[in-house]
Amino acid sequence: MTITEKILAAHCGKKSISAGELIEANVDLAFGNDVTAPIAIEEFKKTGAKVFDKSKVMVIPDHFAPNKDIKSAQQCKIMREFACDQCLSNYFEVGRIGIEHAFIPEQGLVRPGEVVVGADSHTCTYGAIGAFSTGVGSTDLAAAMALGKLWFKVPESIKFVYNGKLKKFVSGKDLILYTIGKIGVDGALYKAMEFTGPVIDNLSMDGRFTMANMAIEAGGKSGIIAPDARTIKYVKERTKKPFKIYSSDKKAEYCKTIEFDCSKIEMQIAFPHLPSNTKPISEAESMKIEIDQAVIGSCTNGRIEDLETAAKILKGKKVHPNVRCIIFPATQKIYLEAMKKGFIKIFVDAGCAVSTPTCGPCLGGHMGVLAEGERAIATTNRNFVGRMGHPKSEVFLSNPAVAAASAIAGKIVGPEVKK
Amino acid sequence: MISGKAWVFGNNIDTDAIIPARYLNTSDPMELAKHCMEDADTDFVKKISKGDIIVGGENFGCGSSREHAPICIKAAGISCVVAKSFARIFFRNAINMALPIFESKEAVEGTKEGDKVEINENTGEIRNLTSGKTFRAKPLPPFIQKIINSGGLINYVKEELAKKK
After folding, report:
1. Alpha-carbon torsion B156, B158, B160, B162, what sign?
2. B132 vs chain A: nearest CA distance in angstroms?
3. Residues 26-65 of B with CB under 8 A from A
4. Secondary structure class of A70 (helix, strand, coil)
5. Is 50 exceeded by the pLDDT of residue A218?
């Protein structure tokens, strides 16, 4: 069996399962945010139930929080009252939390071998620590909150093998953009994407989170990386709860195996308006694409390693006069660490706006919305029409090094050729 | 029986096109309906009539998990979505909240904007009344039919909770 099949089997009380089977699996964590949870709460109330386990249900104010207007304040209020009524043990307010997909693993609230459902498509992020985690809608979340279980079709797995050695500045973001560019935005539709190979073994946890995070951009149900010593160290530093490590059998069945020679992979830019519309940085640079905004952060690239990369490039430099550079650390803990390490000072000295943790800019919600005709380079995850603001604005996706270098240059460039 | 005019869209219609995030500070269906498909076709809600059908290509509803997408489609008066394939979260959301969806490559390829289409929800038979052609949607797995027969996922949950008592 694959790691995904093993985790799902263990959660539905079966010794063995195979792809295509319909199962009801117990969930270890079910959560939503200020966009999705209010609908889930309304549906949940119709069942008349109490949550199945108050330590395994979370509602997280991160999308329009800190509340951008009265309507979003109402949404957060619904969650706050629900958390209080149901006595949820892990409810955190603005100022003590951050973006859900950075916060949950950072706090040890998810562990390897678990099954997690979140009413947010980027819930697939926790595959980075070897959990089966997938995004669902609000009604699914309501059902999971009531029953502690949810139906799944056991996904087929695609095995991705990343061989070779990464070039300088090529990161987890570039690998996942390259992968999506190769297979398309529906290249892994309904499938589990299993990331393997020597390059993954050497990849930092932050890089692994970025890769699993964007599995959904290839249509994937989940992304997963088998836990290794690095994973175990990361998790044990954050939780005392026991967890189980799974890995795929040598004879596990995959619907496809795709190998990449990473030595040849350049930094990647996803052009508007699909994450699969990728070009290598050398080609993007030659097009001299001027930008109005650079956005560094999000559940994809707002972790400490991402900020460190950006800080190294922005140190002693100034953001181009025509560019607004917005940096939003993904959690309060990351914010504080960035402050202690001097990154925040570097950003402010360079002329960047450093924002409190929020999903705001990534989805064109608030804190960095684009006007008609404006263009942004962003370390976020989607560049659909209107994603960051006006339907006639454009978003180019990149890693943090490219976004920082481009902020300085005023156009899309790689870090080595910054002015 | 579903019957309406077809509105045809391309591949990879994402949830930001169906309901842009800038409107997600509310979950009021009627408010969301005002902006249905806005970033794919600005005048969509002005043009449609109650009962009309959305026809999409591959990977319809990709992107975010927002249930606001099927909610706004339903609240705008659209009776169902026919597509070559659906993104998985959109698929689940539509089933869970009883927005009928039909998967058929042939039906999508055989339908032009403005065609009059009739669909039998029970058999999955899709008839293009304009061209006179008939297609058949891929049948739903029995487990999913069970959820639909319960009247959506929440009713299914109620049945499960009642069993526990």
Report:
1. negative
2. 32
3. 26-27, 38-40, 42, 58-59, 62-65
4. helix
5. yes
Indicate the residue of A22, A121, A386 with minimum beta-carbon distance to B89: A121
SS3 A121: helix
CA torsion sign, B4 to B5 to B9 to B13? negative
Listed residue (A282, A284, A274, A311) closest to A395, CA to CA? A274
Quick: pLDDT tens for A73-93: 999 999 999 999 999 999 999
Length of chain A: 419
Q: Give the rounded percent of residues in chain B with a pLDDT score beyond 70.
A: 100
Half-sphere exposure of residue B40: CA atoms within 13 angstroms, side-chain side: 23
* pLDDT given at position B48: 98
Task: Classify burial at A100, counting beta carbons within 10 Å of its beta carbon; exposed 0-12, middle 13-18, buried 19 or more.
Answer: buried
The answer to whether A147 contacts B17, with C-beta atoms less than 8 Å apart, is: no
Minimum distance, in Å, between the CA of residue A309 and any CA atom of chain B: 28
Check residue A61 and give its pLDDT: 98
Per CB-CB distance under 8 Å, the chain B contacts of A41 are none
The interface pTM score, or ipTM, of the predicted complex is: 0.92
Q: How many CB atoms lie within 10 A of CB A251?
A: 6
Contact B12 A186 (CB under 8 A): yes
CB nearest to B25's CB, from A36, A64, A123: A64
pLDDT computed for residue A306 by the predictor: 98
At A119, is the pLDDT very low, low, confident or very high (cuts 50, 70, 90)? Answer: very high
pTM over 0.90: yes
Mark which residues 98-157 of B lie under 8 Å from A by CB.
141, 143, 147, 152-154, 156-157
Q: How far is B111 from chain A (nearest CA, A)?
A: 23
Mean pLDDT of B31-55: 97
Residue A419 has pLDDT above 50, yes or no: no
User: How far apart (Å, rounded) are the C-alpha atoms in residues B20 and A174?
Assistant: 27
Q: Which residues contact B91 (CB under 8 A, 6 or more apart)?
A: B61, B101
Q: Which of B59, B64, B156 is nearest residue A185 as measured by Cβ atoms?
A: B59
Parallel/antiparallel/unpaired status of strands A256-261 and A268-270: unpaired
Alpha helices in chain B (DSSP H): 15-18, 29-33, 44-47, 68-75, 88-96, 105-109, 142-150, 153-164
CA-nearest residue to B28 within chain A is A39
Q: Give the one of A69, A147, A391 whose C-beta lies nearest to B157's C-beta.
A: A147
Residue-wise burial string across B67-83, b where 16 or more C-beta atoms lie within 10 A, e elsewhere: bbbbbbbbbbebbbbbb
Asked if the peptide bond before residue A122 counts as cis, ω within 30 degrees of 0, the response is: no
CA distance to partner chain A, nearest, from residue B80 (Å): 18
Lowest mean pLDDT among A365-374, B5-14, B96-105: B96-105
Do B72 and B35 touch, CB atoms closer than 8 A?
yes
Smallest Cβ distance to A386: which of B16, B26, B161? B16
